[in-house]
């Protein structure tokens, strides 16, 4: 029997249903396929630069501290932690650490700080004191000396304001620092300052200005000797040394005399080198036995009346020689730093002990003369005015007995003491 044919209507309905189902299935598949192809948003996109490099520093900055690990290869101080993994992390940390140490932690009003002038214009002078900001100084309120400063000059600045802009004064800073240095230098007494003798005062002294600080100098400390004319140094610049401080008056006492006294040893050595030269000095006073003379700024000597020339002696007897008079002379003898004899005579017998160490090298073998003999040794005359002892222990009693006063003898000079005028001798080998 042949199979029945499907009805056309039935087949059409089935086809339509199948197509609808197929289309529905394809739609679902297409939707699913489209979902798989789209990429989700990258949460780290903001941490990439234009070149595609990942920005670790920016990324780690958003992470909680507990999730970050310090770089174990960076050595730190005071519990500091470095999280950077960059190769320059250690170098950068060291520079920041040093920079932090150089910066002054706190600046207070009234403090004095050393600094360097950073900039100058008609309104302000800026000073770098090693702080996180510059100190501003009003140009118009400073002294003429400060206004003439240059960029790079070292200076001191007094802090006057710390709220807002850091301000100060250089003139005030220099004055305060000078005052402190002068006061601190009293104990040492080794530093001399240039002072301007401003004026005389009624109580026998002077006002001496040292870098803007008014100091007091008694008349007795104005020179190595008493000045013949007290007004002669007014307006002059002289070197002074701080010697005392009056807390009640807030005044520092200075001395020109102490500065001159410090020059004496050097002046004495120079005097020995040119002892035969004729000199000129200033009379500082007279006595019944002679004339006192100041010369070479810091040396004082005396011309005995027996050593005065005829003209000066006549004036001396008539009491016509006054302090401040100029007088010519030669050095006769240097007994000590504070005792020098002078003369106006043409023939000058120079002390043989002056520069004796330069005439005899140590050790030196010389031909000398026996001056006298004692139980403990021989006194040997090296030259006129210079005698040394050759002790018996240096030659033995038998050898000593051979020599008599006036005999020639060869000896070796082992040491010369100019201060005590002693020559140490022994028999040459």
- Do you know the CATH topology of the domain at 189-259? OB fold (Dihydrolipoamide Acetyltransferase, E2P)
Tell me the name of the CATH homologous superfamily of the domain at 189-259: Nucleic acid-binding proteins
N-to-C terminal Cα separation, in Å? 167 Å
Number of helices: 9
Biggest sheet strand order reads: 1-2-3-5-4
CATH architecture of the domain at 189-259: Beta Barrel
Sum up the structure in keywords.
disordered N terminus, OB fold (Dihydrolipoamide Acetyltransferase, E2P), alpha+beta, five-stranded mixed beta barrel, single chain, five-stranded antiparallel beta sheet, 429 residues
Task: Tell me about this structure.
The chain has 429 residues and is an alpha+beta fold. Among the domains are: 112-175, OB fold (Dihydrolipoamide Acetyltransferase, E2P), CATH 2.40.50.140; 189-259, OB fold (Dihydrolipoamide Acetyltransferase, E2P) (Beta Barrel); 274-343, OB fold (Dihydrolipoamide Acetyltransferase, E2P); 356-426, Nucleic acid-binding proteins (OB fold (Dihydrolipoamide Acetyltransferase, E2P)), CATH 2.40.50. 25% of the residues lie in helices and 33% in strands. Strand 11 and strand 12 (290-295) form a beta hairpin. Residues 1-36 have low confidence and may be disordered.
């Amino acid at each position: 029997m042949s199979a029945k044919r499907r009805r056309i209507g039935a087949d059409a309905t089935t086809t339509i249903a199948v197509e609808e189902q197929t289309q529905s299935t394809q739609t679902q598949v297409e939707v699913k396929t489209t979902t798989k192809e789209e990429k989700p948003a990258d949460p780290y996109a903001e941490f990439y630069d234009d070149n595609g490099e990942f920005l670790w520093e920016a990324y780690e900055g958003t992470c909680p501290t507990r999730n970050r690990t310090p770089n174990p290869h960076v050595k730190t101080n005071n519990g500091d932690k470095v999280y950077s993994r960059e190769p320059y992390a250690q170098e950068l940390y060291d520079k920041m650490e040093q920079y932090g140490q150089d910066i002054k932690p706190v600046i207070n009003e009234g403090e004095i700080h050393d600094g360097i002038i950073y900039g100058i214009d008609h309104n302000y002078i800026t000073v770098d004191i090693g702080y996180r900001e510059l100190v501003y100084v009003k140009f118009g309120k400073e002294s003429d000396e400060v206004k003439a400063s240059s960029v790079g000059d070292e200076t001191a600045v007094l802090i006057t304001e710390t709220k807002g802009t850091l301000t100060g004064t250089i003139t005030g800073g220099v004055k305060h620092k000078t005052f402190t240095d002068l006061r601190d230098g009293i104990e040492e007494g080794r530093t001399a300052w240039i002072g301007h003798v401003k004026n005389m005062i009624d109580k026998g002294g002077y006002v001496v200005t040292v870098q803007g600080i008014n100091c007091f100098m008694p008349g007795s400390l104005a020179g190595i000797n008493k000045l013949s004319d007290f007004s002669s140094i007014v307006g002059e610049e002289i070197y002074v040394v701080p010697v005392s401080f009056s807390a009640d008056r807030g005044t520092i006492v200075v001395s020109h005399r102490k500065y001159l006294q410090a020059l004496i040893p050097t002046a004495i050595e120079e005097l020995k080198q040119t002892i035969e030269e004729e000199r000129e000095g200033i009379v500082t006073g007279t006595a019944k036995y002679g004339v006192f003379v100041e010369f070479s700024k810091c040396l004082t000597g005396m011309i005995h009346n027996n050593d005065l020339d005829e003209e000066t002696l006549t004036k001396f007897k008539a009491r016509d020689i006054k302090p401040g008079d100029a007088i010519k002379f030669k050095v006769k003898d240097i007994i000590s730093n504070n005792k020098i004899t002078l003369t106006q005579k043409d023939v000058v017998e120079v002390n043989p002990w002056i520069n004796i160490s330069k005439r005899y090298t140590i050790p030196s073998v010389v031909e000398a003369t026996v001056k006298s003999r004692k139980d403990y040794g021989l006194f040997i005359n090296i030259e006129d005015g210079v005698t040394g002892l050759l002790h018996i222990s240096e030659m033995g009693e038998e050898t000593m007995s051979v020599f008599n006063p006036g005999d020639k003898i060869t000896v070796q000079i082992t040491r010369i003491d100019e201060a005590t005028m002693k020559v140490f001798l022994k028999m040459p080998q």
